[in-house]
């Protein structure tokens, strides 16, 4: 990517009254080139690369939280608008359009064709598109981070006994508790409120 090129998204606010927000992810897109360094990573370059990927992931996470909030607001705005338009769609309104008898399908069609609702849905689409884009970038940095960790992690010790897993992966199994004698041989010796279980 050309260092002079900018990557800026103009994202509409979630609520209709909110102004659009400009999101500059130029730095993040530039750092995306560092993903190619995974192929050449070694123990000396790994710490800086891990730090870069982690920082980019965190920056994108903040953006995703912001965009998710805007997306939820946009959805709520659409729900409210659809309800309000449904109330405005009376039989008289449909009769003026040449429909003799109102029906649920006609009302639904009238609501869907309103410019205000169409614009609200366009806002939601724009927000969702940028959110998906940022999530894709975030996943790429996460994959890079995990790849570096795997490449520089020392090999696990090989056990001489192939039937036994290496020590770090084994957990000693607890010994079962064995009851030698029945402490309560008959119902008379049971504490108050307890009865013998019948099998």
Topology:
Elements: E1 8-11, E2 21-24, H1 26-31, H2 46-88, H3 91-96, H4 104-112, H5 115-152
Antiparallel strand pairs: 1-2
Please sum up the structure shown.
The protein is mainly α and 199 residues long. 51% of the residues lie in helices and 4% in strands. It contains 5 helices and 2 strands; from the N terminus they run E-E-H-H-H-H-H.
Could you name the key traits of this structure?
two-stranded antiparallel ribbon, mainly alpha, 5 helices, 199 residues
Fold and architecture overview:
- The longest helix is centred in the middle third of the chain and has 43 residues, at 46-88.
- Strands 1-2 form a two-stranded antiparallel sheet.
- The chain contains five helices and two strands.
- The model is unreliable at 155-172 (pLDDT under 50).
- It is mainly alpha-helical and 199 residues long.
- α2 runs antiparallel to α5 (115-152).
- 51% of the residues lie in helices and 4% in strands.
- It is rod-shaped.
- It has one domain (8-152).
Structural class: mainly alpha
- The strand line-up of the biggest sheet is 1-2
* Overall morphology: rod-shaped
The portion of residues assigned to helices is 40-55%
Total domains, how many? 1
Number of helices: 5
Number of strands: 2
Order of H and E elements: EEHHHHH
Output the radius of gyration. 32 Å
Catalogue the unreliable spans: 155-172
Cα-to-Cα separation, first versus last residue? 75 Å
């Amino acid at each position: 990517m050309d260092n002079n090129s900018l990557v800026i998204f103009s994202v509409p606010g979630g609520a209709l009254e909110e102004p659009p927000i400009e999101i500059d992810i130029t730095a993040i897109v530039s750092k995306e080139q560092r993903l190619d360094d995974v192929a050449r990573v070694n123990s000396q370059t790994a710490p800086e690369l891990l730090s870069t990927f982690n920082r980019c992931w965190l920056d994108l996470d903040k953006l995703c939280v912001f965009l998710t909030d805007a997306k939820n607001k946009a959805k709520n705005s659409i729900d409210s608008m659809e309800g309000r338009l449904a109330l405005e769609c009376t039989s008289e309104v449909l009769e003026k359009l040449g429909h003799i008898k109102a029906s649920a399908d006609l009302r639904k069609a009238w609501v869907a064709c309103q410019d205000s609702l169409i614009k609200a849905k366009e806002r939601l689409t724009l927000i969702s598109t940028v959110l998906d884009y940022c999530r894709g970038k975030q996943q790429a940095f996460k994959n890079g981070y995990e790849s570096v960790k795997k490449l520089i992690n020392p090999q696990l010790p090989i056990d001489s006994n192939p039937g036994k897993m290496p020590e770090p992966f084994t957990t000693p199994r607890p010994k079962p508790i064995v009851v030698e004698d029945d402490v309560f041989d008959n119902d008379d010796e049971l504490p108050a409120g307890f009865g013998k279980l019948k099998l």
